[in-house]
Automatic annotation (TrEMBL):
It holds the Pfam family Ank_2. InterPro entries: Ankyrin_rpt, Ankyrin_rpt-contain_sf. This is Ankyrin repeat domain-containing protein.
Length: 107
């Protein structure tokens, strides 16, 4: 799609970027490719969700790591990623976030 001219940071009607959609759908190779091409990691959709929040919610450590390695901010969005991890009982996701130096916590 991108090679055919689809804008890298286009948004759908809900404000989802390609990166948010790929993260939620758990397509690690697509996430990796979008990041390699320079996709914005700071997009917050109309529901306050980010690609990081989607990776945490889906309990996908590989995608979470890709995003954090690309300097995605886990504190962005309506609910920080660490808060999502806590809310859904995903301690490993919180550990990964904290290992990158920011819990994005509201505590």
């Amino acid at each position: 799609m991108l090679d055919a001219g689809v804008p890298l940071n286009m948004l759908n009607g809900r404000g989802d970027s390609l990166l948010i959609v790929a993260s939620y759908a758990q397509h690690a190779d697509t996430v990796r490719d979008l990041l390699r091409r320079g996709a914005a990691t700071s997009v917050v959709n109309a529901m306050g969700q980010t690609a990081v929040a989607c990776a945490v919610f889906r309990n996908n450590e590989a995608i979470l790591r890709l995003l954090l390695e690309a300097d995605a901010d886990p504190a962005l969005g309506a609910h920080p990623a660490a808060q999502i991890a806590d809310q859904f009982g995903l301690p490993r996701m919180r550990e990964v976030i904290e290992s990158f130096g920011s819990a994005g916590s509201t505590h």
